[in-house]
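dumping this here before i forget
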Amino acid sequence: SVTVAGDASDNNPGFSGGGRGGTGPRFVIDVLVNCDPATLPNSGSLVERAAHHSNDGSCGLMPRLLPPGAAGGVAVVLTLPLNHLAAISAVRLKALKDLRSAAARSTGLAAAAEVLARYAGTAGGSDSNDGGQPPLLDPQQDMKLEDEEVSHIVSRLESLEGRLAAHPLWSSSQLLPGLIALQHKYSLAAAARQAKKEIKAAQGLVLADELKARLRVLRRLGYLDNAGLVTSKGRLAAELTTGHDELVLAELLLGGGFADLSPDQLVALCSCFIWGERSDTPLKLRESLQGPLSALRKAARLVGSVAADAKLGVSVDEFVEKFRPELMEACAGWARGQRFADVLALAPDVFEGSLVRAVRRLEELMRQIAGALRGIGDIDLAVTTSYTFDTTSSA
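structure:
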């Protein structure tokens, strides 16, 4: 019998009706076969166990099949996917109607063995089938399918079968192991596609959680209001994109950390936002630079604590240490107009090229700070920042 079993999918590549891409209805067939009793399941319905085999595409539960006339076998009915069917014979045994009893299955199997033996005994005769096998079902002669499209398909099939028979692998002992390995490869590919879908879904969840945490940080620090709209504080932070952390710089600006700073102190403080490398040489800062550095670390600890509370996975101490003061003395000297050799001597562990790149980033950061201050109406501090930048650039 033939049964429609649902739709094929990538999760079940070995169980399909043979449609392209494994899509479309799935069919299963009940087949009377002779099995080695040593390979039969020990418990449960054999038909159910065989159906389980066909569903998952695994051969672990498949009994070993024997020729119909082989001694010592057991006649059973297996439910298998349609793609396990190699061919259909034109010979029909009409006596096979009810195979629920063991005697009926044995009788049917004996009849099939007799038919095979009869054709094998006539092998070589004028009317014998190739190899002494029963004739295959012909769609045109036996099923009376005279449609022109059927003729075209049969012609193509015969051509393909001839090409397959002429191929060196057709009679090779490596063909079956190779096909099994190929099927296993397709199963692994389907499993990999499913795993990628699950990974993508999991990543979406992770990113969604991170987005919610970042929004909590922005609301708690006042960059967003309760309605999720950007505040003036948030517009200031949006203008700052060059430094390590826009929120820390915004907190420092709005908290008065830049007020009453001299040009060299302002430049030195900004250098902490564009430098992150730790020096092996003990750091010695002038007292005039230790105050701005303390204000920076206070602002960084505030932002780091809020981020940690929002479950962003931030270590507060590591976050504070991200703002390194190694270039403060050198940048202060640059702001005072010292020679480049003298400025370089104030940062002995820094290469010349690294120092030049840092100064360029520092100039860009100070431009952004001046523009952000003008955007929120703090014209005096914006003018001071611009004057400091213009003075140091000309120097």
